[in-house]
Design goal:
Helices cover 33% and strands 19% of the residues. By secondary structure, the protein is α/β, with parallel strands linked by helices. Strand 13 and strand 14 form a beta hairpin.
């Protein structure tokens, strides 16, 4: 051993060894190889944790979506007003069938509000986490809440039905009656009493209002006749749903601004009969007041009265879809509120209907969502001819004294085929002997029954008004049995057959009635009225008109036979539709 250092090393060797060790230690201190690997491992582990959290969140959202969908379906099923099972049991059953844990009873709310059924479910489920538990979050709570209600607030409905003569074919009227009555029942079953009003409008050639409704409108002239109750309209009237009823009480003179409507004549433009003598062969343009089955039933709150009206329907006449649409929309228009108020005062409309028909909009101009206005119009045809007597003035045949005189003799010699002998006709164009006596077949200075040589006793001869003439005989009977016998001229007879009345052109001539129908439909839809149309074995022209009239393609129905019951049921379900409120 040399010295007292490292054995076998010289002093120089020991110095080199110490310097070599120090150099290696310094090199180790400065060495950076492997630093990125450690950092990369740290990032990788962090990404795994974040991916795990994202997976837990995805599981959470999927779980929440499934649970929410189950809740939505459950409340919809339970809120159905046709549902006969207990509300909470329906909700629980939906959860069980979806393999979900049913909510506790205190998480399910079932109630009847003023408008219908309302069901609310507010529940949640616990989900175990897979990765978030590493951060201390062991579970996540997935909430789900939903409310469904089937409700119809205040509802105003116009049920507009075609009762033209073609409805007698193929049992159409027979099939219509139970379908319409079922619709009435469905609506009254699903809307709280007092919240629904319904009007039934029947139309053929014209729409008969009936005395209860007719008296609220002034006519020009006001005292035209009381035999029937139909109004006539100008083309511009169809561009609005509004009407202009009396602004003064019934029986009072009209105010200066009151509209005076033309009253449709009480006449038969179709047949050749005497109205009162051979009524079986009579078809009046406007049904007489005695034919109450054709009166409009306005603002009714009684399903019994409405169904009785449907049961009483009879079919006859032409088809005026434009008039049916006009009146159906009018009975939903706020302009008819004074009429409803007056009928309430008379006890003919429920007092709870005060304020109906309700406004279309609120005070701020927004749509009035507290009321649903619905018009359902059905036809089995297309627009055909509508007749109007020529108005007052030159050659007017609507009012005032006529040129016909009538003797009321009770003699059996002047009945049946000899009934025409009771009449005398006045012709002002003659210079003398201006009265033609059908009994004498000669011109005279006075009508028959006015001179001593005529039948005496209690017989009287009166000058008839034009309404009295048309209440006694058809236009064609007058032409055939009076005019032809007086003038012995076929051309004069034929001119009278058409000159007394003006026919509004049929849809296949100039489309005037189709245009009026579509104007009325557009006016109603513009106000927010939901228009449902039903083509009941209707021809192509009628179908196309109804498609254009409906609020949307989904509001138009084409059907036949007894299937019309399903159509009315579908419309009722549409009105009583379920709504998810949130």
């Amino acid at each position: 051993m040399l010295g007292n250092g490292m054995p076998g090393l010289t002093e120089a060797g020991r110095l080199r060894s110490r310097k070599s060790f120090g150099r290696r230690l310094e090199e180790f201190r400065r060495e950076e190889d492997g630093t990125l690997l450690i950092y990369g491992l740290f990032i990788f582990v962090s990404m795994l944790f974040l991916a795990g959290v994202a997976l837990d969140l995805m599981r959470f959202e999927e779980r929440r979506t499934v649970l929410q969908a189950t809740v939505d379906r459950a409340v919809l099923a339970a809120a159905d007003m046709d549902q006969t099972l207990e509300c909470k049991a329906v909700v629980r059953d939906w959860f069980i069938k979806a393999n979900e844990t049913p909510p506790a009873d205190n998480k399910i709310s079932c109630m009847k509000n003023d408008f219908g059924t309302e069901v609310t479910v507010d529940t949640s489920a616990i989900m175990d986490t897979w990765f978030m538990n590493m951060f201390g979050i062991e579970t996540l709570v997935t909430p789900a809440a939903s409310t469904a209600e089937e409700k119809v607030g205040s509802v105003e409905i116009s049920l507009v039905l075609d009762v033209s003569g073609s409805m007698n074919s193929s049992n159409r009227l027979t099939n219509l009656k139970p379908a319409a009555k079922s619709f009435i029942d469905q609506m009254f079953d699903n809307v709280e009493p007092g919240k629904i009003s319904m009007s039934v409008v029947t139309y053929s050639t014209q729409v008969a209002l009936g005395p209860d409704l007719m008296k609220y409108f002034y006519t020009a002239p006001r005292t035209t006749h009381t035999y029937s109750s139909c109004l006539e309209f100008n083309s511009s009237d169809f561009s609005t749903s509004a009407m202009s009823p009396k602004s003064t009480p019934v029986g009072s003179p009209p105010a200066g601004s009151d509209r005076a409507y033309v009253q449709n004549g009480n006449f038969d433009p179709f047949y050749t009969s005497l109205v009162n003598v051979n009524s079986s062969g009579t078809l009046l343009n406007c049904p007489q007041s005695s034919a109450t089955n054709r009166d409009t039933l306005a603002f009714s709150g009684s399903r019994t009265a409405l169904k009785a009206k449907i049961d009483s329907l009879v079919a006859s006449g032409n088809t005026s879809i434009d008039l049916g649409m006009k009146w159906g929309a009018a009975l939903l228009d706020p302009s008819m509120r004074p009429v409803a108020s007056a009928m309430i005062a008379e006890g003919k409309v429920p007092s709870g209907f005060s304020g109906r028909p309700y406004d279309y909009t609120n005070a701020n101009g927004t749509a009035n969502t507290d009321v649903l206005k619905v018009l359902v119009i059905m036809t089995d045809g297309e627009n055909t001819t509508e007749y109007k007597l020529k108005d007052v003035g030159a050659a007017g045949y609507t009012t005032g004294l006529s040129t016909l005189y009538y003797n009321n003799t009770a003699s059996s010699s002047y009945t049946g085929s000899n009934f025409y002998k009771r009449f005398s006709l006045f012709d002002s164009s003659r210079s003398s002997n201006k009265y033609y006596s059908l009994y004498h077949s000669a011109w005279r200075s006075a009508p028959w029954g006015s001179v001593a040589s005529d039948i005496s006793g209690t017989d009287t001869t009166v000058q008839l008004t034009w309404p009295e003439v048309w209440n006694m005989m058809s236009v064609n009977w007058f032409a055939d049995n009076i005019i032809y016998r007086v003038y012995n001229s076929t051309s004069t007879r034929n001119a009278w057959r058409t000159s007394a009345s003006n026919a509004v052109a049929t849809s296949y001539v100039d489309n005037s009635k189709d245009s009026q129908t579509l104007s009325a439909c557009s006016a109603a839809k513009a106000k927010g009225i939901k228009v449902f149309t039903i083509g009941f074995d209707a021809p192509t022209a009628g179908q196309n008109l109804l498609k254009s009239c409906a609020s949307s393609p989904a509001h138009y129905y084409l059907t036949s036979g007894s299937n019309i019951t399903k159509v009315f049921a579908s419309i009722a379900n549409s009105i009583n539709k379920l709504r998810l409120t949130h």
